[in-house]
Every structure is written in structure tokens, then in C-alpha cells.
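Workshop exercise sheet. Pairs work together: one partner reads the sequence aloud, the other fills in the structure field after running the prediction. Swap roles for the next sheet.
Pair: D.N. / O.F.
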Amino acid sequence: DEKIPPPLHLEMRRASMSNETDLPGFTRTVYERDHALVTPESRVWTGLQGWKNTIGAHFVSPAMMSTHFTMYLAKMGEESSAGMPPNGAERFVFVVQGVAEIQVQGKTIRLEEDHYAYFPPDLPHEITSTTGAVLHINERIYSVPHSSDVDKRPEFLHGITEEQPVLPVPGEIFVLRKLLPQTPEYDFNIHVMDFEPGEFLNVKEYHYNQHSLLLLQGQGIYRLGENWYPVQAGDVIWMGAYVPQWYCALGKQRSRYILYKDTNRDPLFEYGKSFQ
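Structure field:
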């Protein structure tokens, strides 16, 4: 029998089973005009169109204010398979738990925990799991570059988080890895950020780029607008355009989160069309 490796994100699963879920009517979940915090006791699992033996929980979608991407968790059971994203949509998949396989471009690729894959729009592919897996997924309709200087289109890729280089972040002390190329054909990137206890963002950020965030390990305080939220592994955050944001890691262990970020597009084209 195949041996299943010990889980990398055990804290996230323990948080999902917190005693908070036993308190009648209690939730830490908050939804505001420009941000949201979604905690494990508020997850609602439903079937996903085209998926087999899988349930999903959507946390970010265009149903929110001016949001143009989705972020959801897909909980794949035994002998499960994924559906294709909508026409024109690109897809990023990160394995939180378990093992999945992808079939793409004539190859079969095994994805374990902390492995990931990016599928450009309309690329035929299959995602299956024999023993079960939990996937973190971002999808969006691809935004074609408006610059004539960009003549390339994004390509399929896959990798392992820990094999990606640690990038310099002037003025900051956290550890940053980017999982997608920093080239203009890609309209978003995925950041994995590590903070030791007591480390924090130096810049109190304010920008047009939207985020989704899944806290994989640890705990801390997240400032969103004028609100300060205690957060822990398993929590999901949506950050809309121009919401002030800041994080500090607390507790006794490293914090790690995976974050979606819009990149390489002029906000005049990205957001101006929303008001036409």
C-alpha cells in the first residue's frame, strides 16, 4: 500500500475542528464592503459543476464588490475528478492536503502537499485523486494585455513551493516565494509568505491589487481597514482594492499564507470597464 506522508498543514486542520464551532450562533466571519474574513465554522460545502465525488466552498467570487476572480477549496474524495473551468478562464491549483494527479499535454504529473500547477485559459486538462485531496484554487477570466509589446501568452507550469527561490523584499523581513513567472503575459501571481513569531509587514499596504489569502500555518493579527482581526490557520481573507492592510505573526510557530495578487495590468482597463 502507498504510504501517505504526514500532513504539512496539520494546524489548519486542527483549527477547522476548534471548539468555536460548538458555540451556538458564534462566528468570527466578517463581510465588509472592501474585505472579508471567513473562518472554518462558516464554510458551506456544496457540489461543484462538472466535478465528481467532490464538494467545494467558495470564499471569493464576483458576487463581491468589483471582484473579478474566484478562490475556493475543493475537497476531493476517493476516485474523484475535476471539471474544467469556464471558457476563457485560467486556473491555479495548490494542494493543501493529500495527493492529486493531473493529466495535461500528454503527461501525468503527481501533485503532493505544497505542490501546485497553473493552467492557462482553455488548456484541456484533468485533475483526479484516488485517495482524496484538498485543493486551494484560484480562477479568473484571462485579461489580455493591452500593450502591443506583450506578444506572449501564459504557459502551463507546475512546481513545488519549497523549491522556489526566496526573493529579496527591500525593507521587509518576511520570507517571500512567488509561484508564477514575473513576466507581463501573466495577469496574476501567487505569493507564499512566511513570518516568524513577532515579524510583521513594515509597509501598511494600500493598493489597487486585490487579494485572496489562506492562512496555512500559525496565527496573528490582520489589520483590514480600521478593523483588527485575530486570525489562525484555516482562515481565509479577501482584500478588495485600496483597503489598508497589515499583518503581524504571533504565537509560538511560523505563520505561512498563500496569497493571490493581481499583477501586470493597468487598473484603468481592469476596473474602468466595471463602470461602463
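Discussion prompt: DSSP finds two helices and 20 strands in the chain. What would you look at next?
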